[in-house]
């Protein structure tokens, strides 16, 4: 057993942990990141599961990564390159499709084909969402104030928060309020008449949540996904060259250059507490590391219910953490393919292979997929977001071959009877069947298949219930309520202990805002 | 899925004329900027003989039914109910805050049939205004192709082609006719401020129509022209262009980008006495307090322009094309407006611009300063407010 | 005859507004479309000798201010809390009996869950605290969150102070609870499925949402505004039925010099130069009047009583988007006696999953095969509603959505009535033999008979996005409309349904300035 001292210890080498460490190191702190696995990234990793085929195993697209982080850490110099993902094609049940392309005129023509009204509405909708995202964006950079506190900083914070809304023109304020409270389905009903268009749009309101398109609160997630920004362009989705792991690697490289130490294969067994403050961590191998600052990027259930003992924390905080809803709802299927899927609705190779293929043929389809999950089953006919990374970055697969990434919803973490190998394969089969329905050559093109259920995601990444956002993006779990009331400012009820994961404001996706904001808060607390 | 830019029904005729691959986008269609390598000849055709312009990409809607006039009267600012069959109205239409959404023309084709042309899509907006009304709205943008024949010889050419007398067709009136057996609607309208007509035809008959007009027009100097020539002509004519001279309130990102009809000096298009129309309340209120801005012509003073260039040892440099950028205007050192389009007028031999100016500086004759860049440096030249249009030949209306 | 104001609709809110206006010296006329007053709050004879509360069992909370201002108690409106709030049948066990008596309820829970029994008192206090805060927001017009006018800021501040008055934990509870799904809230408190199932119905009452839908906790709290601690699911009973409130209000109006006309359907509101000019009745009669107050729901008021050209398309679109969606069927049964084992109020909703599954049907445009039921026998607390020892049972069944995928037909209406009665009979064997007559009110029936769009008893779903400053639409949440002289005062405005007369009073207050 050895003991070492640092200024700060960061538990978990996911993107938020790495960003946090990089910012601390940049401020001259001696930081160590402890990662359980043999590679950094957490849910943002690229792995060569089968020789020659590289999978973005979990998270697979990026747009939310905060531009200030990219600039501050000079990530492009460390290898970050984001390639555009330009289109979305949704095959419909009648053999047709609806698509959105990079070019506005082409997209308009496509939507017009389905509905003249919707073609007009589409532009106005996008404009409004742009406004909404602009309005909400400053919140992403805010440390949530405590609304119950009368401390000047909190009052000022609340005023700033209110100011964001008050600065909006009345109509936009109302639209934002609706967006915060409505279901994605109801919200989209106000705009569009084409069912498959609504289904595809609403799907981005349910990604990663345990909600259906008709569940109030899902409209907010629509906005969450609109806040992405690549090179100043809103809502653009991209794919990292080298897969999502390349993002983590670039951050790790920046952190190392700034002096942070990153230890792989270093699972933390517990957070050490002495005299009411966190003093370090003990690794599973028995090593102890000490630091006045311990930052956890794990979700609160893992951080507070398993790395700490209940008695070390206030009872109402523990109760809040217990009732914090995590609920994994999605799975992931990664495939190696001998050829591209030949879509019945769009035969042959084409630009659609360079974008997303959405399996969301109708509102009813997506809602029914949710109904299955609500009662503890995986969706027999799931919603899927499919991309073919090798079409965007050819180095992801051997020449002529392809890799495919399928995000699948719903796969509830609390499936009846628990997940096992049989259910996993049945779930994989449901996915393959659903894709084969729109691309008949699909089944026979599969060379390798990796099926990840929420239980697998939890086992590999450590994310409780396999939830990709470390907790639902529901209204009662956002901002100053995330992850627990009174503890939304990246601190924890133990002196010296901090949180920086997606379970803190502003939440999930490869955004990195939590990691950065937490570092800035920590630097306020520690002596220079 | 075809990802190529769409082409108009005249493409098989316009494409072979193209010498410099100078296509540009207009409403999702490829149209010619200029057919020849220079647009000069095309410009002069507008003013001296006749230019033939493909204006098919315009959005066109047919509004039919018992309440067709009522619908349009709810939407647009001019009085449709008072329009006679065969009349064409240039108009704006506004949102509920009285800010301009779009401008275009309304043709009364029949008692209960109208055609609306627009720069932007308006299908949904028309539908939203059609509540409780017995009316049918059809988007005929693709169904109907259109050619503008503009210039002093336009009437002669059309008379040849239609074998009918068009002298009785007054300015902003329409007639149904046929050209070589092709049924057409001819409106005496255009975007050049000159004598001119627009010919509306079923897209299926577009090519024979083109051929017929070219054949009839060749002895009179008919010249296919592109957007560059048109742009110069419309500045001379003082005609504003959406997304250049003003932003549709639908596309504006902030309030200050929006304009009311008064702010565009289109007061004459607003029938305040109509009991209902979108934006009426806001427009009435603005009328009562007076518009804050006016849309005016600016003539850049030649001597002043020349001396700015002479100061650095250069002769004055004039733009070869109409420009579409925002250029600040000053009065006594403070900015009081901005020009949005400008062009050298080869015909008038004046340097012209179209501009938004604060109302108190908008009286014709007011002297302002306009920014210009001379050898990488920002300078100011004197400019004078002029009433629009700059060019207004008698033949336009006669 | 010339009037200062005309009120469209003689329901509780219409009459309340008329009463306030008349008492302020305005010359008021109320125009009611039907032959009887009351609207959705009517007590009517549905079968010879049998009277029932047509649409709602409980008139809702009449704010103390309204009671006092209008002297309603003296006019015979004296609601009391029924001794039994609801009985929850439990398969193979004694029913859980919820009553305003906190201890008795806890005792009733004890055989089912010691944990839940122990938490009951705390839960009652929690609900009372939160709905108490909501009640405070209901006593004033909706705050204008985005306004910077001093009066608006003051009223926001005063709400903020009230919120602060709840203490740190209380504040968090309010902020956190309101957007929650009722299922999550109940899961945090209780373990017994039967209890949670029955309580969850109070979170989805009359809305087309399920217990797992966000914001249903708000509906639950809303339904407890004005009730004392322990009044979970409590019922206000009025001798003579809910219509007594209407009679009392009508008396106030007439005594103050107001006029009430029945069989006087307003067909159109005339507008001249953006101002109200008068109304046209269905009979063709025209009444010139400078002020019209509509207690009809916002969709009906703006989409059918006005010429669309008088309103902005943007505003009309917002009105179109107000979700109404009546999700309930109401069945009235004339009974020759009380079925064995029946009590005044029973809720059949065995689990939250059961309620959620019933909702799924509505979500997909179908009638739930197994709806949840609330069965009330009004004659147990108020025997004179039926003559000669007979009884009246009213069953509220949810979900049977207005927007049915295949549309409503007479056959479907009959079938849904039969299946509801059959389900009730499973709980109350022998019920079928006692039924002498039945009436089924589907959402389209409610719409046709009472003029409530989509059969919504709420004049617009009570959800977070249609609440406070967003009710009925955010641009006009303070009773005024875009047309000068036209006001709203019905349940579609803040605070809305379940708060009898609160909207009516606030509207009048706003008009009188």
Describe, in plain words, how this protein is organized in 3D.
The complex is a heterotrimer of chains A (528), B (398) and C (513). By secondary structure, chain A is α/β, with parallel strands linked by helices. Chain A contains 18 helices and 22 strands. In chain A, the strands form six sheets. Chain A has a seven-stranded mixed sheet with strand order 8-7-18-19-20-17-21, with helices on both faces. In chain A, helix 1 runs parallel beside helix 18, helix 3 crosses helix 4 (116-140) and helix 8 (195-203) packs across helix 13. Chain B is of the alpha+beta class. Chain B is built from nine helices and 20 strands. Chain B has helices at 11-14, 40-48, 68-75, 123-128, 154-162, 206-217, 227-236, 280-289, 302-310; strands at 6-7, 23-26, 29-32, 50-54, 59-64, 88-94, 100-110, 113-118, 136-139, 144-150, 174-179, 182-187, 196-202, 222-224, 293-300, 327-331, 334-345, 350-358, 367-374, 377-386. Chain B has a six-stranded mixed sheet. In chain B, a hairpin with a 5-residue loop joins strand 6 and strand 7. The radius of gyration of chain B is 21 Å and the shape is globular. The mean pLDDT of chain B is 97. Chain C has 513 residues and is α+β, with helices and mostly antiparallel strands. In chain C, the strands form six sheets. In chain C, strands 9-2-1-13-19 form a five-stranded parallel sheet, with helices on one face. A five-stranded antiparallel sheet of chain C has the order 15-16-17-14-18, with helices on both faces. In chain C, a hairpin with a 2-residue loop joins strand 10 (266-272) and strand 11. The mean pLDDT of chain C is 94.
Quaternary structure type:
heterotrimer
Shape field of chain C: globular
Average of per-residue pLDDT values of chain C: 94
Instruction: List the strand order in the largest sheet of chain C.
Output: 9-2-1-13-19
Unreliable stretches of chain C: none
* Structural class estimated from helices and strands of chain C: alpha+beta
């Amino acid at each position: 057993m050895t003991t070492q001292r640092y200024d700060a210890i960061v538990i978990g080498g996911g993107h938020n942990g790495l960003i946090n460490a990089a910012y601390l190191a940049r401020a001259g702190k001696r930081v160590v990141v402890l990662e359980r696995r043999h590679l950094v990234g957490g849910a943002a990793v690229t792995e060569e599961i089968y020789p020659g085929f590289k999978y973005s195993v979990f998270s697979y697209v990026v747009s939310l990564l905060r531009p200030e982080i990219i600039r501050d850490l000079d990530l492009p110099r460390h290898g970050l390159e984001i390639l555009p993902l330009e289109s979305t094609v949704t095959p419909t049940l009648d053999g047709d499709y609806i698509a959105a392309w990079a070019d506005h005129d082409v997209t308009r023509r496509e939507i017009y084909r389905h509905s003249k009204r919707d073609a007009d509405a589409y532009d106005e909708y996008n404009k409004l969402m742009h406004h909404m995202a602009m309005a909400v964006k400053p919140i992403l950079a805010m440390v949530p104030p405590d609304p119950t506190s009368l401390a000047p900083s909190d009052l000022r914070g609340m005023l700033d928060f209110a100011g964001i809304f008050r600065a909006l023109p009345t109509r936009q304020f109302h639209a934002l309020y609706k967006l915060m409270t409505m279901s994605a389905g109801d919200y989209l009903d106000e705009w569009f008449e084409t069912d498959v268009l609504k289904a595809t749009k609403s799907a981005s309101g349910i990604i990663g949540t345990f909600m259906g398109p008709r569940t109030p609160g899902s409209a907010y997630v629509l906005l969450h996904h609109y806040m992405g920004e690549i090179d100043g362009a809103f809502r653009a989705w991209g794919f990292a060259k080298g897969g999502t792991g390349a993002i983590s690697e670039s951050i790790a490289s920046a952190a190392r250059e700034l002096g942070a130490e990153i230890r792989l294969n270093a699972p933390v067994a517990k957070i050490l507490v002495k005299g009411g403050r966190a003093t370090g961590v003990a690794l599973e191998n028995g090593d102890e590391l000490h630091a006045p600052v311990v930052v956890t990027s794990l979700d609160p259930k893992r951080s507070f219910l398993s790395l700490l003992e209940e008695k070390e924390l206030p009872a109402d905080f523990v109760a809040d953490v217990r009732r914090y809803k995590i609920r994994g709802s999605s799975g992931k299927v990664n495939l190696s393919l001998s050829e591209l899927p030949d879509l019945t609705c769009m035969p042959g190779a084409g630009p659609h292979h360079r974008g997303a293929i959405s399996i969301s043929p109708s509102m009813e389809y997506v809602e029914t997929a949710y109904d299955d999950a609500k009662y503890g089953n995986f969706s027999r006919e799931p919603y899927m977001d499919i991309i073919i990374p090798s079409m965007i970055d050819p180095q992801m697969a051997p020449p002529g071959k392809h890799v495919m990434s399928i995000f699948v919803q719903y796969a509830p973490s609390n499936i009846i009877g628990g997940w096992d190998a049989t259910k996993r394969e049945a779930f994989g089969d449901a996915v393959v069947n659903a894709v084969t329905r729109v691309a008949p050559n699909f089944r026979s093109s599969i060379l390798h298949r990796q099926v990840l259920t929420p239980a697998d995601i939890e086992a590999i990444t450590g994310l409780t219930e396999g939830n990709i956002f470390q907790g639902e993006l529901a209204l009662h779990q956002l901002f100053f309520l995330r992850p627990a009331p009174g503890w939304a400012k990246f601190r924890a009820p133990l002196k010296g202990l901090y949180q920086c994961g997606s379970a803190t404001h502003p939440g999930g996706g490869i955004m990195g805002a939590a990691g950065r904001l937490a570092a800035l808060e920590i630097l306020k607390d520690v002596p220079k | 899925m075809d990802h190529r830019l769409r082409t108009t029904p005249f493409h098989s005729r316009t494409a072979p004329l193209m010498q410099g691959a100078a296509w540009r986008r207009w409403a999702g269609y490829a149209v010619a900027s200029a057919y020849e390598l220079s647009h000069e000849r095309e410009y002069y055709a507008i003013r001296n003989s006749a230019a033939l312009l493909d204006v098919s990409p315009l959005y066109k809607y047919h509004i039919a039914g018992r309440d067709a006039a009522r619908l349009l009267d709810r939407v647009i600012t001019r009085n449709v109910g008072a329009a006679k069959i065969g009349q064409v109205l240039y108009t704006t239409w506004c949102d509920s805050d009285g800010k301009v959404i779009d401008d275009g023309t309304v043709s009364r084709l029949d008692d209960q049939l109208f055609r609306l042309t627009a720069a932007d899509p308006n299908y949904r907006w028309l539908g939203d205004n059609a509540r409780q009304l017995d009316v049918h709205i059809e988007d005929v943008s693709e169904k109907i192709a259109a050619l503008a024949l503009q210039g002093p010889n336009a009437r002669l050419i059309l008379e040849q082609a239609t074998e009918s007398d068009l002298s009785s067709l007054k300015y902003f009136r329409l007639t149904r006719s046929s050209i070589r057996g092709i049924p057409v609607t001819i409106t005496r309208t255009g975007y050049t401020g000159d004598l001119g007509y627009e010919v509306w035809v079923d897209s299926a008959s577009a090519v024979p129509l083109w051929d017929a007009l070219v054949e009839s027009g060749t002895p009179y100097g008919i010249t296919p022209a592109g957007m560059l020539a048109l742009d110069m002509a419309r500045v001379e004519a003082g005609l504003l262009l959406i997304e250049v001279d003003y932003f549709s309130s639908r596309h504006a990102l902030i309030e200050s980008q929006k304009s009311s009809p008064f702010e565009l000096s289109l007061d004459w298009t607003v029938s305040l006495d109509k009991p209902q129309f979108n934006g009426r309340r806001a427009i009435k209120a603005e009328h009562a307090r007076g518009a804050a801005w006016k849309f005016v012509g600016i003539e850049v003073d030649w001597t002043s322009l020349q001396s700015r260039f002479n100061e650095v040892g250069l002769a004055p440099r004039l733009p070869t094309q109409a420009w579409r950028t925002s250029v600040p205007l000053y009065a006594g050192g403070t900015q009081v407006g901005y020009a949005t389009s400008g062009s050298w007028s080869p015909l008038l031999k004046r340097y012209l611009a179209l501009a938004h100016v604060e109302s108190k500086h908008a009286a014709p004759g007011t002297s302002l300063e306009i920014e210009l860049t001379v050898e990488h440096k920002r300078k100011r030249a004197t400019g004078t407010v002029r009433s629009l249009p700059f060019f207004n030949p008698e033949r336009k209306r006669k | 005859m010339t009037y200062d104001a005309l009120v469209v609709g003689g329901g509780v809110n219409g009459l309340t507004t008329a009463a306030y206006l008349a008492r302020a010296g305005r010359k008021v006329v109320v125009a009611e479309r039907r032959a009887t007053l009351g609207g959705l709050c009517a007590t009517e004879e549905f079968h010879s000798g049998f009277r029932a509360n047509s649409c709602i069992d409980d008139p809702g909370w009449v704010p103390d201010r309204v009671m006092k201002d209008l002297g309603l108690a003296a006019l015979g409106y004296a609601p009391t809390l029924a001794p039994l709030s609801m009985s929850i049948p439990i398969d193979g066990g004694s029913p859980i009996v919820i009553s305003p008596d906190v201890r008795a309820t806890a005792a009733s829970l004890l055989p089912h869950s010691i944990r839940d029994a122990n938490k009951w008192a705390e839960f009652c206090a929690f609900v009372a605290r939160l709905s108490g805060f909501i009640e405070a927001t209901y006593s004033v017009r909706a705050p204008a969150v985005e306004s910077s006018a001093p009066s608006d800021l003051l009223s926001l501040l005063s709400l903020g102070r009230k919120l602060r008055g709840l203490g740190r934990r209380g504040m968090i509870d309010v902020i956190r609870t309101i957007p929650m799904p009722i299922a999550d809230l109940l899961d945090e408190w209780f373990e017994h499925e039967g209890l949670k199932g029955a309580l969850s119905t109070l979170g989805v009452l009359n809305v087309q949402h399920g217990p797992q839908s966000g914001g249903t906790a708000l509906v639950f709290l809303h339904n407890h505004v004005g009730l004392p601690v322990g009044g979970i699911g409590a019922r206000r009973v009025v001798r003579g039925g809910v219509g007594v409130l209407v009679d009392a209000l009508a008396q106030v109006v007439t005594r103050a010099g107001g006029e009430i006309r029945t069989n006087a359907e307003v067909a159109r509101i005339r507008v001249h130069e953006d101002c109200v000019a008068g109304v046209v009745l269905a009979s063709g009669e025209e009444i010139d009047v400078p002020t019209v107050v509509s207690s009809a729901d916002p969709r009906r008021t703006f989409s059918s009583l006005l010429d669309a050209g008088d309103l902005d398309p943007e505003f009309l679109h917002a009105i179109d988007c107000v979700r109404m969606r009546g999700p309930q069927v109401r069945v009235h049964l004339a009974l020759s006696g009380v079925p064995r084992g029946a009590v005044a109020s029973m809720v059949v909703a065995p689990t939250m999953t059961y309620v959620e599954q019933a909702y799924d049907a509505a979500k997909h445009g179908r009638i739930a095969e197994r709806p949840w039921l609330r069965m009330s026998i009004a004659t147990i607390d108020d025997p004179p509603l039926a003559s000669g020892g007979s009884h009246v049972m009213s069953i509220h069944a949810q979900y049977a959505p207005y927007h049915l995928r295949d549309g409503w037909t007479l056959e479907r209406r009959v079938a849904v009535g039969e299946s509801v009665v059959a389900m009730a009979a499973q709980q109350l064997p022998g019920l079928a033999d006692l039924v002498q007559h039945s009436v089924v009110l589907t959402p389209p029936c409610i719409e046709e008979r009472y003029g409530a769009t989509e059969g919504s008893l709420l004049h617009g779903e009570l959800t977070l996005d249609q609440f406070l400053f967003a009710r009925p639409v955010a641009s006009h949440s303070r009773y005024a409309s875009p047309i000068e002289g036209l006001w709203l005062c019905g349940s579609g405005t803040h605070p809305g349904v379940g708060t009898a007369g609160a909207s009516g009073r606030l509207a009048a207050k706003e008009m009188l300035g």
